[in-house]
Amino acid sequence: MTATDMGSAPLTGPVRAPLMRLLRSELRWVLRRPRTQIALGLLALVPVLIGIGIVVSEGPGGSGLLTQVAGNGLVLPIAALSISLALLLPLAVTMAAADALAGESAHGTLRGLLLAPVSRTRLVLVKAVGVLAVAMAAVAAVTVLGIVTGLVLVGSSGTAHGMLTVSGTEIGPGSALLRVSLAAAWTVGQLAAVGAVALAVSSATEHPLVVLAAVLGGLIVFGVLSTIPALDWLQPVLLTTGWFAITDVLRDPLPLDGLASSSVRAGCYLLIGLALTLARTATREA
Amino acid sequence: MRAGSVTPTATAAPSGHGAPAIRVQGLRKVFGPVVAVSSVDLDVPTGAVLGVLGPNGSGKTTMIRTLLALSRPTSGTVELLGKKVPAAAREVLPHVGALVEGPGFHPFLSGRENLRRCAAAEPLLSTQAIPDAVERALHRVGLADAAGRRYRAYSLGMKQRLGLAAVLLVPRRLVVLDEPTNGLDPAGTREVRRIIAELHAGGATVLVSSHLLTEVEATCTHVAVLDHGSLIAAGPLTALLDGEAPALDVRTPDSAVAVQALRAAGIGAVAGPDGVRVELAGTDPPTVVALLVGAGVAVHEVRRWRTGLDELFAQLTEGNGQ
After folding, report:
1. Which segments of B100-152 are extended strands (E)?
2. Alpha-carbon distance B133 to B190, whole Å?
3. pTM for the whole thing?
């Protein structure tokens, strides 16, 4: 191309990069980041530590879900998910969401993406996929290590590699694993809601710490609110209200209403979070 | 030459036809009570290298951010390569390379990986072309040897080079560089000049902002001077160098005779320590020299007196300020 036609030639060529390429690049970036890897590694330790604790303390003792784990290995991943969902899993997901927009903005890399250009709608899509990937990886880490630790360390003394439900019945290994998968999928849904809200905060600031503080602070406030009897009427709107439903997978027959209603609630949070993220990103000055 | 009324297009558009590469009309950007940019009108002809000069806080970066649709103008319009921005930004931006407010990269990735991530988002790069484009860009800015090191470990100059490499990933029609020589040593500064010259030779339009006047003098064909958010001068570099009062320095021992002869002919002249300074308003150098020689003045040396951008810059900003 000579100098002259470079000046006057019409603008040609594609106006956006292939979506799959953007997603691949985002996933590489998210999963290669040292802090993501450390977070995933620490999360994977949770079921291992619980398993060791149970083996060391030998037999029933203490209270709640953990007593169910003794001699009932496949309950371990569910117990580990339930315990991590209180704070650790939301922390991992919020960290990813904080880096996704606020962190990129702080590094000056968000500018680069917008100048490439990546449209703002696509930016939100790509970032949401990245956060979802971290949520899935985190849940997978806890679940897989939970299953392995449960089967190896805790064993299944009472059952033939199946599961003893809290209702007293025994279910086979196949349907036990199915229930573990259900618990994992449900947890991913709840974390997606947390991630969407975190992304919304992330789209409004360039300080990743603000995102962490806002979301984790919010979860703690939700917890406090749910303990105040006078505020019972708030329960249906609090995301954390349905988080006990995960233990429903240990019942026989499986009651679905708790899992379903908490998933619907998570869906609402997800939609609101993404809508706010889109709106804020559309007008963001980078 | 004042108050942005000048359209450089009139004087020196290399291609001479078509829309200017950048056209800004009535641009204004307000942050709360602060007016960052106020009523800027500017045309940059295709193929020009425009230096945007201004002291820190004069609105250079804000103007550039608005040009690139990173920030929305409070009022006014921007056209890049003939398209309205931000409305048609997605059509234009693939052809625009920009380094704004310093390089932005991820510290935990190597230079090469950072560049690959940038390349993945470039619409004009096919997926197969990415590895080659990345290596070529790294080579062009002299980072080929350090490409495998983490960005965290880069020196300020290397970071700046990587930012330039990202601009060079794709052949661009318009390149916008915000203070590209910040943090560079003299060798790095020369490299940047070389890259700007290459881009210019390739027909690209370049906009460089700087608060270093020598930088602009060395690389630019056109200059725009911003102060307190207003464009106080714009035009081809040569026209601005002459300033508003072109003059001639004549070295001669007979300054008294010279001044007398010139004034008699209606030409303004002032005697100096070793000659006279002749105002060129209404006349030209050959006339002056002929007149002096005719009057028997011994002329040792005649030099065009240039204000120099430094002086011009100081004059303009001080005169306009407060």
Report:
1. none
2. 23
3. 0.84
pLDDT of residue B233: 81
Q: Report the C-alpha gap between A42 and A161 in whole angstroms.
A: 27
Whether pLDDT at B78 is above 80: yes
Flag residues of chain A having pLDDT under 50: 1-6
What distance in Å separates the CA atoms of residue A254 and residue A179, rounded to the nearest whole number? 9
For chain A, where are the E strands, in sequence order? 163-164, 170-171
Task: Tell which residue, B120, B118, B168, B175, has the closest CA to residue B143.
Answer: B168
Say which of A24, A112, A116 has its CB closest to residue B123.
A116
Residue B76: phi and psi, rounded to 5, are 100, 170
Number of C-beta neighbours around residue A108 at 10 A: 18
Nearest alpha-carbon partner for A266 in A110, A132, A67: A132
State the smallest CA–CA distance between residue A125 and chain B in angstroms.
14
Task: Kindly report, residue by residue over A65-105, the tens digit of the pLDDT.
Answer: 777 777 788 899 999 999 999 999 999 999 999 999 999 99
Of residues A6, A7, A29, nearest to B117 (C-beta)? A29
Of B14, B46, B117, the CB nearest to A25: B117
Q: Is B15 helix (H, G, I), strand (E, B) or coil?
A: coil
CB of A183 closer than 8 Å to CB of A246: yes
| Mean pLDDT, chain B, integer | 85
CA atoms within 13 A on the CB side of A49: 11
Chain A residue closest in CA terms to B69: A115
Instruction: Say whether B93 and A115 touch across the interface (CB within 8 A).
Output: yes
